[in-house]
Amino acid sequence: MADQFQTFDKAPIVPDTITFRAWRFGFREMILGAIALILLFMCFLFAGLFGSSTVQLQEARTSAQVAMARSCKDSPCLKTTAHAMELLNISVNPCDNFFQFACGGYTVTNPLNPDQLHDNILRQMYDLNQDRLVAILEASPENYMTWSSEVKLKDFYASCTDDFTKEQVKGKPLFDKVFPLLGGWYVKDATWSASWDLNIALKHVQTDLWLDAMYAPWPGWDQYNWKNRIISVNVMQIYPAGTGYYMRWAYYKENPTDPKIQKIQTDYKTFMRTVANLVARDAKVAKDQALGDRIEVFVNDAFTIEQKIAKMALAAEYQGDPYSEANKQTLDDLTRTTGNVIDWTAQMAYLFDENRVSGSTKVVVPYPTYLTNLTAMISIPCNSVHRMLHNYLTWRVLETYVQDLSWEYVHANRQMYVDLYGRVEFLGTQRYCFMLAKRYFDVALGALYVNTHFDEKNKVKVTEVTESVKQALEDMIQTNTWMDADTKKYAMDKMRGSTYKIGYPDFMKDQSKVDAIYQQMSINVSDFFGNLLAANQQHKREWNRELREGEDRSQWIFNTYDTNLAVYWYWDEIIVPAGILQFPVYTHGMPHYYSFGAIGTLLGHFVHHLVDERGARWDKGGDYMDSERGWWSNLTYTNYNAVRQCVVDLYNNVTQGPYDIYNGEKRTVAVNGGKYAYEAIAITTGIRLAYNAYTAWQRSKGADPHPPGLQYTPEQMFFIGHAQTYCYNRDPSLDYTYTRLRNANEETRVNLALQELPEFSKAFGCSAPSKMAPTQRCTYY
């Protein structure tokens, strides 16, 4: 058996050799060949894989290059994206509360300062512009010519902030420049009355010292012809004419029993007494009992006249329709009807000396009974009446200019403010002088802002955005169903013919034209009080020009550095000052989806106002129409009311809050749909106009580059850009008051407007019945 197994063991399973036709292969060669075949196969396999990988790698590189080419890498785009992402609160579902989704991060990244109650995007832009203006004022002038408006502006500001010189001169400007105009001062010289003339003193007070005393003149608009101006002799403009700046008329009650009013009157007299003592000290009047007695007479005289004026003002009756020809009065007639006490022709001829003012010039007198009672008081046969009027006029001047003197005068004024309001926060010298510079040199400062901080490309580019929005409105008007053909045509004609003031007036680029405005104004860097009097004369020249020329539609109602945007129906215009054309609302380099969402929706809002229910009340020339429907046809007006009612019903169901009031009490604020409907329609329509304009822009000029890694689509970024123009941070103590006064707060405005837009729901995939995708919507256009 062993031999058998042995034989079996020796027997090859595979023969030693295999014959293929004439070739004979040994076993070893077969193994090597198999290995070679396997290696060859693997080579082909790896070659294929390598070739495939090379193609894929090349495709990946190509795709990456395309993506990079379509991605924005420039600073404006990346800055815009970073800003937008910073304000988001991604923990909020955009379909539940889009405003909180878009702006929820604002309060975290923009906390309120201790002295702030409110902050928002536009306010931040405004504050930035104020800082820029201060830097302009404090920089050395680029044009050193003495006639340059820049030099005059900066010298005025420097003289105002020069506390050292103010401390040196103290009350001296009053003796040199004021008291001679008033015929002296009773406290310094009790013999002043011999040559005192009320009409002469009143002319100097009203015109040269530029303050309202006894009455308030003004070159107002003629309400029957808005292209003309007419002199108005009124009881008040901003402040009551001829009473204390801090004193409401009710505070002058005779023999008051209310402890609050008693304290106010006592504090006010203390203020008057303190200022009078400072003036007497600086005039080097001997400090004796006689001086104290004269100061008491001065205080009591001035307060008594103010008290009588307040009483007459409260009792004054408004004359119905004072602008009608029948109710206008000539200056000669006004002088006669008021007892010839005040020469109204002489007063107005002195103020408006560049116009041909005469006794036959007609004026508007809204409160004729006030002037009658005023002149009756003045003409009382009393030996002391002239002294009382003189002391009254002197005090009106002193209170007006007390902040423009040395520190002790300023402090006296502040003390009165603290006594009255209990607050110790003040502007400070720098802010006060900045305010005056803006008041007296608004054009010069605006021109410097434009030339220093405004990029001309912004004006060019935003003009294109405006044209796109106008075209979107024209398309919408043509396709809407509630306007008839005649109304549609009028609406499109009005929109096309309207004026769009963007950026700044063209003349501001011509420095010679800016300088010419201030040509007659002399400024001395060492004489602040004299500069104020020079500014008064500039005001006088401006009033004369307004009265002479009437309507001037080349003027701008905003300064170039303002961050407002508005429709001005009277002149049929849209105003977009340079101040709002900056990041984050608009710069020419930011992606169009964001700029159309931000500035585009604001433009759409106000352009729509040109032709909406409010815009219909002003015709194509800017003239007001008495009819409630204006230039709309009866059919259009009727159809629109059905649209409007849907909006009224929608907003009437909205309640905002609850808000903390005090002592744990909470209150809500309901939206008044009837009052808010026109604004709600304008906001929603403005968003749609901007969205349509943006999609048309995309079709014609291609999509914007997309920031790397941004997870939101351009359409989504459009709506984010819109919402983020309304981001705010507000102290809870102000929330209730703000919402009640504004009717609808920012969150309500944004969310309810977007709820009405299917375009929004589609962009964010919001489906009914989520809060941002209601089952029923109002149809606007």
TrEMBL record:
Residues 94-505 form the Peptidase M13 N-terminal domain. CDD domains: M13. Gene3D superfamilies: Collagenase (Catalytic Domain), Neutral endopeptidase , domain2. The keyword Metal-binding applies. Keywords: Hydrolase, Membrane, Metal-binding, Metalloprotease, Protease, Transmembrane, Transmembrane helix, Zinc. Residues 572-779 form the Peptidase M13 C-terminal domain. The keyword Disulfide bond does not apply. GO terms for molecular function: metal ion binding; metallopeptidase activity. It comes from the Eukaryota. InterPro entries: MetalloPept_cat_dom_sf, Peptidase_M13, Peptidase_M13_C, Peptidase_M13_dom_2, Peptidase_M13_N. GO terms for biological process: proteolysis. The chain crosses the membrane at residues 30-51. Its cofactor is Zn(2+). This is Uncharacterized protein. It comes from Batillaria attramentaria.
